[in-house]
């Protein structure tokens, strides 16, 4: 082969290599199973963010999606696959706390950063260096829900329904009850399990107790069913929930029974906080034809924050990216201004939403600084 031919060949090889060099980011999401609506919403936010910012360090970004089937073991297996087989240098996910706790153990062992858009239980990041999140945590959320129940709705007696299979629900129930009792409220705490569809036993106890509010701290499917059955039994009081209510499926399943339900949320598109929020809502409506849900906004923020961290790390080294994530301050996100603290958490205001005319409507905002 002539030296010229050789040179051409080498050039071709080099250029094809750089064409194929990509930055791989994993997206570990519940795309099927019990909370698949959540996975779908986060994916929409990530896809929009990826369209807006598709390169970093001069290379194309490839997002590798991995379904957890809404299960803890699959979350752990899925993140291992993303890291070992796909070679991702950072992971966005999981959505629900139990799955993020399971996946986070693996991220920590393998020293690859994971950023949850939405998992709010304290244990998700506790004692970890590689796991962070772009949302507030449940002590704040539970306190906000109790403040609203007591101060705005004047509730003194509440039945709290806990999904004992979900770390999120167990934690949120405790934080709510703690603050509710501090104000002299009386709480009755009852359990159920993910996937349950029959709540008459718990609801008759709630009625006998004289509950003025039923607080369901789990996820949308069960919240919607509890609401329907409570109304069918003639319950006239308030129905409250945490951020686990925040998917359009709540209304699709619950219909009129969830009308007037209040829940704590991270964000509402009608109350944009930053310049980025406004642009995000416009771009989302243009792409999908509907206003973004909270989880789409949080997914968008998690992706953008990871990309900024990769940029600042200047190299495709997971450990450097993890350090960069932990030093992010005043990041202008769609859901607000995000500063990642030393424990990997963000502190943000809590929004109270309600269902009005079969739509999510902004009801109030409780600023984080008021919740001490
Ligand atoms: N906070 C919930 C959890 O930790 C997940 C969630 C967040 C669901 C936001 C809906 C909206 O499990």
How would you describe the overall organization of this protein?
Strand 10, helix 9 and strand 11 form a beta-alpha-beta unit. The protein folds into two domains: 202 residues, Response regulator (Rossmann fold, 3-Layer(aba) Sandwich); 147 residues, Response regulator (Rossmann fold, 3-Layer(aba) Sandwich), CATH 3.40.50. The protein is of the alpha/beta class and 372 residues long. The protein contains twelve helices and 15 strands. Helix 3 runs parallel beside helix 4 and helix 5 crosses helix 6. The longest helix has 20 residues. The strands form three sheets. It has a seven-stranded mixed sheet with strand order 8-7-9-10-11-14-15, with helices on both faces. The chain has a six-stranded mixed sheet with strand order 2-3-1-4-5-6, with helices on both faces. The radius of gyration is 22 Å and the shape is elongated. The N and C termini lie far apart (75 Å). Bound molecules: phenylalanine (PHE). The site of phenylalanine (PHE) has 15 residues, from helix 11. Phenylalanine binds next to helix 11.
Summarize the structure.
The chain is α/β, with parallel strands linked by helices and 372 residues long. The protein has helices at 3-20, 36-52, 72-84, 97-110, 138-152, 167-182, 200-209, 220-232, 249-254, 275-288, 294-313, 318-326; strands at residues 22-29, 55-56, 59-67, 90-93, 114-116, 131-133, 157-163, 186-192, 213-216, 238-241, 262-265, 331-333, 336-338, 350-356, 359-366.
């Amino acid at each position: 082969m002539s030296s010229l031919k050789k040179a051409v060949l080498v050039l071709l090889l080099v250029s094809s290599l750089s064409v194929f060099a990509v930055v791989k980011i994993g997206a570990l999401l519940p795309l099927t199973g019990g909370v698949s609506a959540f996975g779908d919403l986060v994916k929409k936010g990530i896809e929009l963010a990826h369209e807006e910012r598709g390169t970093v360090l001069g290379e194309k970004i490839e997002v590798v999606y991995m379904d957890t089937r809404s299960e803890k073991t699959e979350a752990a297996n899925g993140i291992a696959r993303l890291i070992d087989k796909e070679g991702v240098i950072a992971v966005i996910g999981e959505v629900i706390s139990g799955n993020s706790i399971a996946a986070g153990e693996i991220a920590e062992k393998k020293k690859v950063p994971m950023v949850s858009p939405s998992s709010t239980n304290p244990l998700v990041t506790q004692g970890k260096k590689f796991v962070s999140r772009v949302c507030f945590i449940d002590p704040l959320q539970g306190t906000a829900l109790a403040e609203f129940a007591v101060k705005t709705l004047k509730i003194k007696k509440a039945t709290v329904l806990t999904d004992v299979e979900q770390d999120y629900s167990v934690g949120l129930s405790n934080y709510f009850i703690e603050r509710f009792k501090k104000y002299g409220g009386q709480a009755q705490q009852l359990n159920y399990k993910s996937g349950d569809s029959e709540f008459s036993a718990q609801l008759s106890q709630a009625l006998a107790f004289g509950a003025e509010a039923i607080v369901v701290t789990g996820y949308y499917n069960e919240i919607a069913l509890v609401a329907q059955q409570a109304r069918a039994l003639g319950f006239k009081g308030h129905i409250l929930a945490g951020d686990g209510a925040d998917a359009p499926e709540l209304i699709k399943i619950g219909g009129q029974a969830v009308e007037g339900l209040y829940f704590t949320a991270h964000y509402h598109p009608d109350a944009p906080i930053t310049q980025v929020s406004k642009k995000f809502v416009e771009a989302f409506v243009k792409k999908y034809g509907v206003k973004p849900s909270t989880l789409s906004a949080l997914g968008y923020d998690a992706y953008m924050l990871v990309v900024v961290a990769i940029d600042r790390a200047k190299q495709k080294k997971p450990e450097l990216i993890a350090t960069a994530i932990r030093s992010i301050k005043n990041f202008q996100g769609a859901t607000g201004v995000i500063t990642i603290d030393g424990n990997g958490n963000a502190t943000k205001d809590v929004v109270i939403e309600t269902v009005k005319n079969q739509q999510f409507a902004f009801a109030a905002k409780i600023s984080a600084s008021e919740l001490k």
